[in-house]
Each structure stands twice: as structure tokens, then as C-alpha cells.
């Protein structure tokens, strides 16, 4: 591996910002990586700081572009965001929040879905909000109807414009009874961030209960919110008049942890993921056991490795505590090395197997069923939008020229290239930096043989 060191690369970019890497695969990844705060909590906790009347401190913030996007959106609204004393912490001071101008917001929204979560806090603070059209991974049409329906129930007036949506709350926001058609993570967060300062009680049914949602509830409770939940996905929020800042250490990123675990198994290596906790990964660990992988839960993390021949499995993605949809892409790379026929039923999104085309190009045997597979005993309720992928292995993967399609698929492309014999060129790698902090440095720490070439 030729380290380019500090030498700039094509286009004068720093190596860490490289977009194209050349990977020489066929070597096990082994070593130690640390996962910090969860991308899908940290970005929401940053938005929650808008609701406070005093500064908040958020700890274990990963250095990823999704955080940078939310940071600039907050700053455009007058929130002062500074690095905290503790490395990896942010101080967010919302005491001078004022409405931003559309062009400024649009310039900062980037490829993120987080802006939609600014609605409630901005309506409480300013009585109005403008949210530009949303970005985010192309893994389905990612609608926001559950969000807008909920906001209307709180009393918001929603106006759809060609460039986004404008909201106002002429009579303020009041508690509502909301029943989500599906336990949507984003819609649950939308309701939580709006209900905490609404007048009266909000009852939310069919809520998402992912660990990141529970951590956001902990953040809001620290701010002064009164939130309780029942075992059957019902959450009650008693609106309060004032909220203060919080001091919170974010939950670890279980998606990143599962990604590195899958990399260890796919490349027949051994990776210790510091910061990973068993409790939030139970379902993932059960599947690893069935696949024939081994894991060792320790005080400060989990050690992942293959434990002999990999076995095929049938996996159904689902809302928590089921097998997360974000876990299936990296796992599928490992399943290309399992001896037999595996099936992954993707029930959360309608288009989350696009990344498998590149794996097939590298020699994998994967057949995607765009309307799902009506076979076998199912635990998860079938959904009209679901798809299925059938992976038959083991297949030898060969290096290829591939382009990253989205965050989790992109990570899987890199793992496939590291698993494959020969050289691969992986393009559009910047997308991976949205959700995997210090990605190149972690790959190097695990012995990956690659160069940044563009
Ligand atoms: C969050 O997306 C995560 N993103 C996703 O992670 C994750 O895969 C997903 O939750 C499921 O766990 C962030 O937290 C930023 P949903 P979100 O609302 O909130 C449908 C990653 O890689 N739906 O739970 O957008 C939707 O189409 C990303 O980190 C509506 O129909 O997910 C999907 O089929 C990828 N209408 C299902 O619900 C709505 O208004 C689940 O979506 C909202 C959602």
C-alpha cells in the first residue's frame, strides 16, 4: 500500500477527501476500530437543542458530513455551534435563534433528510419554518406524508411550494392523538420534537422504538420534557412551556458496529469494535451466530470473527427489535461467502438491493425479487413494497470497477472489494463519509491495502 501521506491528490483535495480508491483485496481485515455516537441519534439531538432556552452539550459526536450539514443548518438559524472542551463534543447555543433566509437554508440542506425535523422546533421558536426538498439516500421514494399529517394534527398549516414546504402555526401548536400507519423512525422523531412544547398531552401510537429513539427521549427528558411509553409502541408526551439545554453522551452507532462486524466475517478476519454494546445488537448477534460467525462480548466492545465455514441464513428486516434494514447490505457481502442459499426479505424500504448489482459484477450469485418471495415461514408481516434477495455461495469475488450508490450499499462495495481477489476501483466514495467517520483511517488500521487515486 503506498501511503500518499499528506501529498495532495488529483484536484488538490486532501487524501481523506478522496473520491476514488484502488483496493487490492483478498486479505483479512484484522485489528481494532472504535465507534462513536450514532449518526441517527446525534443529528436529531442537535436539532433538539433548538428547543432549549440555554446551551446544550453533545458528546461523542462523529465527524461525518451529516453532522456538518445539521451544524450549518443550525448556524443559519442563529444557533452558535462550537467544539466543546472534550474532544468530539459540541456546544450548541440556541439563545439567538432567528429565521434564516430560504437561499441560505437551501445551500446548506445538502443530501440529508434531517431538515424535515426542524419543523416542530422552528414553529415553536419562530412560528414559521421553511424546509427545502429533502435529499438522503436513494433507497425508495422516502415520502414525508406521516410527518406532514402529524404536524397538521398539532395545528400547523403546511403549504407545499415547488422548492419545498412552508409551515406556520397561527394558533400555536397543541397536543394531538396520532397513530402512525407504520412505526416510522423519522415520523416518531417529528412527533417527539413537536409535542414536547405543544400545549397539552400528545398520544402517539404505533411509534418507532429504536435505541436511537429511546436515546432522543432521554435527551428531551434532560431538557425538561415529560415523556412516558408503554410496551405496545404507545408514547405519551405532556407538553411543557419551557425547555433547557442538555448534556448528553450519544448512544454508540450500532449500524457502523454491524458494518465492521460484517467486514470481519466477509474477509475472514478479526475485528474488535470498541464502543459496541450487546444489548442494542441482540438480533444482529443472533444472525451472526446462525451464519457461523463468532463474537466475544467484552466490557468495552465486541470482538467479531468468522468461526469456520459460513452457513446460509434467512433474514427478514424489520423495525426494532427486528433485524435492521441498515444491517442487511454489509451482511449480504458475508453471505456471498456462505455455503448455500441465503434469503434476505427487505420489508422496510422498497428499493434497497441496488448495491447488489456491483457484487454480481464481481462474481456473486445474487438474484433480487422486486416483488418479494412468497416462500417459507415468515415472522415479519408481509408488506406490499417488500423485496427479496437470494444469495447463493460461496462464490469467489473478483476485483471490478464499481461506483458507490448510497451510504450502506457503498460501504458494502468496499467490503466486497476487500474480500475479492485482485484490484478494484471504487468511485464516489465520498458518500460513505456521510455515515462512517475516519473511514480511510479505520480501513488502514485494519490492514486494508488501498490507495486514494482521485
Ligand atoms: C431512518 O430513516 C434512518 N435515517 C435510516 O437510516 C433507517 O434505515 C430508517 O430510519 C429505518 O430504521 C435516519 O435516521 C437519518 P422511516 P427514516 O421513516 O426515518 C416509510 C442510514 O443509512 N415512510 O422509519 O427516513 C418509508 O418510505 C439510513 O443511516 C412513509 O411512507 O425511515 C419507509 O418505507 C438509511 N412516510 C418506512 O416508512 C413517511 O412520512 C421506514 O421509514 C415516512 C416514512
UniProtKB/TrEMBL annotation:
Enolpyruvate transferase domain boundaries: 24-443
InterPro entries: Enolpyruvate_Tfrase_dom, Enolpyruvate_Tfrase_sf, MurA_subfamily, RNA3'P_cycl/enolpyr_Trfase_a/b, UDP_GlcNAc_COvinyl_MurA
Source species, domain of life: Bacteria
GO molecular-function terms, A-Z: UDP-N-acetylglucosamine 1-carboxyvinyltransferase activity
Keyword field: Cell cycle, Cell division, Cell shape, Cell wall biogenesis/degradation, Cytoplasm, Peptidoglycan synthesis, Pyruvate, Transferase
Its EC number(s): 2.5.1.7
Residue numbers carrying 2-(S-cysteinyl)pyruvic acid O-phosphothioketal: 137
Pathway: Cell wall biogenesis; peptidoglycan biosynthesis
Reactions mediated catalytically: phosphoenolpyruvate + UDP-N-acetyl-alpha-D-glucosamine = UDP-N-acetyl-3-O-(1-carboxyvinyl)-alpha-D-glucosamine + phosphate
Catalytic center residues: 137
Main location, first listed in the record: cytoplasm
A Pfam family that the UniProt record links to this protein: EPSP_synthase
Amino acids binding phosphoenolpyruvate: 39-40
PANTHER family listed in its UniProt record: UDP-N-ACETYLGLUCOSAMINE 1-CARBOXYVINYLTRANSFERASE
Function field: Cell wall formation. Adds enolpyruvyl to UDP-N-acetylglucosamine.
HAMAP family documented for this protein: MurA
Protein name: UDP-N-acetylglucosamine 1-carboxyvinyltransferase
Species whose genome carries this gene: Microbacterium ginsengisoli
